[in-house]
Write a structure and sequence with these properties.
Blueprint: H1 3-29, E1 36-37, H2 43-51, E2 61-66, E3 76-80, E4 83-87, E5 95-99, E6 103-109, E7 118-124, E8 129-134, H3 140-151
Antiparallel strand pairs: 1-2, 2-3, 3-4, 4-5, 6-7, 7-8
Length: 160
């Protein structure tokens, strides 16, 4: 075997090894790619949510989703029994907590593909307009969105 082939083999091996290690780290520390039912949100994510002061003591998370790879602060979204809570460290105002009675309009665009998330669009009476993704994996986007619709007294088959 020539020196060039050995170097090429070592280079490919190094790249494959780096990819495997990266995927392992993401899989170990990052959030699942699906929506979490409230009681299944990992304790480490709950600690982050509490440190960001996004949840009141008497509030219960119904569904949680993060579209980040490692640090959930890059994008986390959840529905509680009292509010819709959205957080992204890249937003000018990272935390948006919307009581259900402040939602003026609500719409969802479902996407059942593996590669794309469903999208939710919300406008408040004070004029805040936000949109955020919800994973369609396992059909849990419908439960996440349905939890909001339930609080808004919207029939899941109707548009707001």
């Amino acid at each position: 075997m020539s020196k060039t082939h050995k170097s090429l083999g070592l280079g490919c091996g190094f790249i494959i090894g780096a990819i495997v290690i990266t995927l392992f780290v993401i899989g170990t520390y990052g959030p699942d790619t699906a929506v979490y039912p409230g009681r299944q949100v990992p304790a480490r994510f709950m600690a982050t949510i509490r440190s960001l002061d996004l949840l009141q003591e008497d509030e219960q998370i119904r569904f949680f989703y993060s579209d980040s790879l490692l640090d959930i602060k890059a994008g986390l979204y959840f529905v509680t029994d009292q509010n819709l809570v959205l957080y992204s460290s890249s937003w000018e105002e990272p935390a948006t907590i919307i009581p259900f009675d402040q939602i003026a309009s609500f719409d969802a665009l479902y996407d059942d593909s593996f590669l794309e998330d469903s999208s939710v669009f919300v406008t408040t009476y004070s004029g805040i307009e936000v949109s955020f993704p919800v994973s369609s994996e396992k059909g849990l986007d419908k439960k996440f969105i349905g939890a909001i619709q339930e609080k808004l007294n919207i029939d899941p088959d109707d548009r707001f």
